[in-house]
Amino acid sequence: MDWLRDRFEFERDGGGHTIRPMEGLRGFAVLLVFLVHYESLLAPWIAHDAPLVALAHALETIGYNGVDLFFVLSGYLIYGSLLSRRQSFQKYFARRLRRIYPAFTVVFVIYLALSILLPAESKIPEDNAAWFLIANYLLLPDLWPVQPMITVAWSLSYEMFCYLALPLLVALFKLRDRSVTWRVTFFLSIAVAFAVYTAFNGGPVRLIMFISGIALYEAINNSELKIGNGLGAHALVVGLLFMLWPMAEPVGKSIKVSVLFVSFFVFGLACLRSSQGWLPMAFSWTPLRWLGNMSYSYYLLHGLVLKGGFMLLSKLLPPTGEQSFLHWVLLLPMLALTLVPSAALFFTIERPFSLAPRSNLADMQRSPA
């Protein structure tokens, strides 16, 4: 147990009572993302079971929003780091690159090697292969018309945009010298304007989730606003279930993300305002926190491991569309399967190369996706 604790725990300062539930929130977010890939890969085995297919689709849809929770936490942490102290852009951005690229580079090389060894599974196009690889390594997919080679890496382009945009906004509008009311009004105006624009024109509306994290930081650090545990839990449930409501895009997507913007703010405030209460205590559960601390490694690698696991399963038990029992039987074994290589990546690459000890909560940016 001590061996695991030494590798999964992080240093905390005396005022770091909010860190524990935040670590758990990361673990919860990456579990939601796990559901997306688990349900999609399991589909051929349960395709003829209408009720179970509907459940799988619902879980997959809800799971997508684990990424949005990561965006909220990133907005909170990066904005807090920038606002709390002046720092050179070069040093700031070097830390952000060091946070992302060591583990990403290893996984990128693994995907590249497997693309060569298993050409039938490769996403690398025959034409413009060099540009495809360069664009993927520079984290351009999704915000640019480039398919991600690493399935989940699309979200890293959003993170990189946040890394570049926030210091520019803080400096350009002198946000450190502004009042809390001015800053909150400024960012909420951007969120509303962008949500309205994307409702009519489409676009990456999920970028506003970073602003939900910014508002969360301002509320926790500059106000007495409190949210009860019950209200916070209800906000989470309502926000996630609302994603199941069928709505035509792009208006529907903007409405859904806007609802999630508010629900994750309320939920985050209930979890992070205080360590007291059953909700922050639930997200301070040690296994969930440890998963949260290695969530970036897990996020990058779990989809590939699941793919391999289901490829092996198809050899041993070919899908017939009528094997509904597998939905529940495989859930925990497949989760366990993804934990081992992800933990190895975390121990050998992410922690030693990307996670220097930090005492300041605002600098504890441990998982960019």
UniProtKB/TrEMBL annotation:
<feature type="transmembrane region" description="Helical">
    <location>
        <begin position="100"/>
        <end position="118"/>
    </location>
</feature>
<feature type="transmembrane region" description="Helical">
    <location>
        <begin position="257"/>
        <end position="275"/>
    </location>
</feature>
<keyword id="KW-0808">Transferase</keyword>
<feature type="transmembrane region" description="Helical">
    <location>
        <begin position="325"/>
        <end position="349"/>
    </location>
</feature>
<feature type="transmembrane region" description="Helical">
    <location>
        <begin position="152"/>
        <end position="173"/>
    </location>
</feature>
<dbReference type="Pfam" id="PF01757">
    <property type="entry name" value="Acyl_transf_3"/>
</dbReference>
<keyword id="KW-0472">Membrane</keyword>
<protein>
    <submittedName>
        <fullName>Acyltransferase family protein</fullName>
        <ecNumber>2.3.-.-</ecNumber>
    </submittedName>
</protein>
<feature type="domain" description="Acyltransferase 3">
    <location>
        <begin position="22"/>
        <end position="343"/>
    </location>
</feature>
<dbReference type="InterPro" id="IPR050879">
    <property type="entry name" value="Acyltransferase_3"/>
</dbReference>
<keyword id="KW-0012">Acyltransferase</keyword>
<feature type="transmembrane region" description="Helical">
    <location>
        <begin position="180"/>
        <end position="197"/>
    </location>
</feature>
<feature type="transmembrane region" description="Helical">
    <location>
        <begin position="227"/>
        <end position="245"/>
    </location>
</feature>
<dbReference type="InterPro" id="IPR002656">
    <property type="entry name" value="Acyl_transf_3_dom"/>
</dbReference>
<feature type="transmembrane region" description="Helical">
    <location>
        <begin position="296"/>
        <end position="313"/>
    </location>
</feature>
<keyword id="KW-0812">Transmembrane</keyword>
<dbReference type="GO" id="GO:0016746">
    <property type="term" value="F:acyltransferase activity"/>
</dbReference>
<keyword id="KW-1133">Transmembrane helix</keyword>
<feature type="transmembrane region" description="Helical">
    <location>
        <begin position="62"/>
        <end position="79"/>
    </location>
</feature>
<feature type="transmembrane region" description="Helical">
    <location>
        <begin position="28"/>
        <end position="47"/>
    </location>
</feature>
